[in-house]
Amino acid sequence: MEEFQNIGRQFIFLPSYYIPFGISFKLALSKYDAVSEPQYIGLENFRKIFQDKIFWISLKNSFLYALYVVPTVVILSFLIAVGLNKDTKFFRFLRVFYFIPTVTSSVAINFVWLWFFNPEYGLLNTILGFLWIKKIYWLTDSKIALFSLALVGMWGSLSYNIILFLAGLQNIPSTYYEAASLDGATKKDILFHIALPLMTPIIFFVLIMQIISSVQMFESVFIMTRGGPGYSTYTLVYYIYRNGFN
């Protein structure tokens, strides 16, 4: 009976996936301007994309962005979750504090970071000025603009992943920790030989979701740099937007 129910669910949900995919693939093989009827042109659209140097720049930038953000976010969020895994009022307050970015508008967050990055009166350069370090052009220097956007992505992604890791850590039975402590295991041993192995499914889930999120990055580019300077912060999604809507 359960198998028939699963088959029924597939019949309901699969069309919602395959029908849009089929329509999109058909349009990809057509010349279409949203006004006239689509004209079949085969693989011409794909040929144009692969011959477009901006596409390859966007692909490289998306890869670099993910390379900056994904490992940093996964490692930091796990370590912070380990530190927050204590049942006291202070640490419960910290959990709420870390979760705030998740419920804050991403557009508002990007505008705040835009102020942070301002070379003349931004917070970051003000702090650097007190340290006698010359100002940095965070968003207008092509060498560091993409990394600056990655900083925003790291900060915005930490909170949600911390909650996921924290939930996983709190689901590990305390008897495991107690037995390990009685056997003389150190905190490092408990972390690497108990917590990490049991957290593997959640770590894998966070890793996959963070890769997807990084590849889909758009808002920071649109609000802060518009792909500039030059094409140094063009990403795949921004490239699609520029070609599809402009």
TrEMBL record:
It is a multi-pass membrane protein. One of its GO terms (biological process) is transmembrane transport. InterPro entries: ABC_transporter_permease, MetI-like, MetI-like_sf. The chain crosses the membrane at residues 12-29, 63-84, 96-116, 146-170, 190-209, 221-241. It is found in: Cell membrane. Keywords: Cell membrane, Membrane, Transmembrane, Transmembrane helix, Transport. Coiled coil: none annotated. Residues 59-246 form the ABC transmembrane type-1 domain. Pfam families: BPD_transp_1. One of its GO terms (cellular component) is plasma membrane. It comes from the Bacteria. This is Sugar ABC transporter permease. It comes from Dictyoglomus thermophilum (strain ATCC 35947 / DSM 3960 / H-6-12).
